Amino acid sequence: MGEVPRIPADLAAEGWRVGRKRVARLMRAAGLRGISRWRFGGTTQSDPRVRPKPDRVERPFTADVLDQLYIGDIREMFPL
Predict the structure, then answer these.
(1) Environment class of residue 12 by beta-carbon count within 10 Å: exposed (0-12), middle (13-18) or buried (19+)?
(2) Distance CA 69, CA 63 (A)
(3) What are the Cα distances from residue 33, in Å, to 1, 7, 20, 23?
(4) Measuring CA to CA, how many Å separate 56 from each of 11, 37, 59?
(5) Where are the domains of the chain?
(6) What is the pLDDT of residue 32?
(7) 11-25 pLDDT, tens per residue?
């Protein structure tokens, strides 16, 4: 709720004393949401004509349980 901090400040300027948590709770109960100035940036869309990069590790990465396996590769960021 990006607008919540502004509302208590505006109310304080008019002489009302109210906390931001109360404003957030009342807005949530009334189904009100603040307007964000920033739009969510979408993910990058890959070009289907470009061939994907090769799998250099060539190992199957599967996990039996959720949150058991994490994989990362920084070689693309820092080529040899």
Answers:
(1) exposed
(2) 6
(3) 6, 12, 14, 11
(4) 59, 42, 9
(5) 1-36
(6) 87
(7) 999 999 988 899 889
**Residue 53 in tokens:** 């990069």
Q: Please give the pLDDT value at position 15.
A: 93
More confident residue, 59 or 30: 30
Helix axes 6-13, 20-30, angle to 10 degrees: 110
Measured between alpha carbons, how far is residue 46 from residues 50, 64, 71, 77, 79 in Å?
Answer: 8, 29, 21, 18, 21
Cβ atoms of 67 and 35 closer than 8 Å: no
